[in-house]
Amino acid sequence: MSAQGPALGERQRAAIEERGPGPVGVTLSVNGEERSLEIEPRVSLLDALREHLELTGAKKGCDQGTCGACTVRVDDRRVLACLTLAMTCEGREVTTVEGLAEHGELHAMQRAFIAEDAFQCGYCTPGQIMSAVALLEEGHAGDDAEIKEWMSGNLCRCAAYPHIRAAIRSVRDGQRR
Amino acid sequence: MRPITYARAADAATAIAAVSADPGSAFLAGGTTEVDLLRQNVLTPRHLIDINDLPLNSIEPQPDGALRIGALARMSDVAADPLVRERYPMIAQALELGASAQLRHMASMGGNMMQRVRCSYFRDAESPCNKREPGTGCPAIEGVSRGHAVLGVSEHCVATHPSDVAVALAALQARVHTQGPGEETHAYAFDDFFLLPGSTPDREHPLAHGELITAIEVPAVPVARRSLYLKVRDRESYEFALVSVAAALSLVDGTIADVRLALGGVATRPWRAMHAEDFLIGAVAQRANFEQAARVELSTARPTPMNAFKVELAQRAMVRALETLANGSPA
Ligand SMILES: Cc1cc2nc3c(=O)[nH]c(=O)nc-3n(C[C@H](O)[C@H](O)[C@H](O)COP(=O)(O)OP(=O)(O)OC[C@H]3O[C@@H](n4cnc5c(N)ncnc54)[C@H](O)[C@@H]3O)c2cc1C
Ligand code: FES
Ligand code: FES
Fold first, then answer.
1. Where is the composition biased (Basic and acidic residues) (chain A) (predicted)?
2. Residues of chain B below pLDDT 70
3. In terms of pLDDT, which residue wins out, B62 or A6?
4. Distance (Å, rounded) from C-alpha B195 to C-alpha B159?
């Protein structure tokens, strides 16, 4: 179906504010900072972060929801930035790997990834870390089988999986203590 | 990716009116199908109406024992809901075995019902495809069909319905509630909601353009408290099913008193295994009967050389699911 409908009718336009298709002003709250940008509505959160806000931590692996390299947090949930339109995040809080450190100190999960050597090329790592932090909050890191299953949305082509699990375990066990 | 406009709707009537008014408009929920296929040029909306602010995300028990799941409830929330887990383990399992944790936080139940097939010809805007462009042909039938359907196929389309949770909902005979442009509401029986491809594979649902799914109602199904979802796939996680089985079973003195059975990964729509159920009711709960029931259900299978293995796989998966339940260890 290649129907190219007319713009919304007058009645709908009164009830609903249609924006775009050209660039529109959007304000996003990213890592605790209000950021203003001009983007077309088709721009994904991933492209908004990487191309417009110079936050290149989140990576573009597949752009189809199949790899997890783009994992970020929107409000309190880990999501895929490649399948999220940036405009849907207005009024929500976006956190990227750049926002994990506090007062210049790396997040415990970042430190654990370094300590456990949980990467080779590092391409998947920001997504892995964002996912791992959420995993612990979600309470699905009971044992290795559970970690495996609930981290399956983050692929690692260097197959650093055993080390990634070790990093997650160490933060989990550090928290328990 | 083609240009689009974006609008966020605050209430259902506004969203429905906006989409109904224009064939180039579409609802946007979690976006995990819509944004993906927009980027692939497979879906070609001009206007997206964001429905995520609509108050349709609650999960509420009904006086008659049913459970009403709002269309915008996320897969992860539904899977974690205590009532869902207690009354319908097969729903929680089907959800948690689907996609990934990130996608389940994004994807809504309404969107899940409306997700599009994963057939690689459908997903490639350059290929012919009767579902995407009626009349252009189905290259899968003579082409790469390993993942395609063996049940409910037609000479016009063999694409597998991809949803997991819809398989559990088919077994449970859920109802899909909708609202249309004149504020009229409708409740579809699950079997009426998913259309067989026949000669019009482009029509997957009876919904009018702009008709909004508001809720999925799961009736009280006591047998479902002992149920499971078995999913067989090429890798252990984050993968669509080659074959899946939603099953519920109750026995009285070794005889099957009640049973629900549905198949995924093998059919063009979520497949309630009615013939198998009919065979099993009143039968002795033993392996030979499970095998016979599965054979009866699969007798109408029309595999291609590439996906013929699915018939045997579905046979074994059904038997395993029933045996697991009969032996009293629902997964
Ligand atoms: C990599 C990947 C792996 C996946 N694996 C699985 C899997 O293993 N099992 C599985 O079951 N699914 C799987 N999925 C599919 C996923 O579950 C669906 O994409 C998701 O459920 C769609 O919901 P959504 O809210 O994101 O819908 P959207 O993408 O927002 O919408 C999908 C369609 O439905 C329409 N729509 C949305 N809401 C409504 C409504 N309330 N009323 C009417 N129309 C509506 C939209 O206009 C659009 O056409 C996978 C997806 C991806 C990308
Ligand atoms: S880039 Fe988003 S999942 Fe691969
Ligand atoms: S470290 Fe290279 S992809 Fe994971």
1. 10-20
2. 329-331
3. B62
4. 12
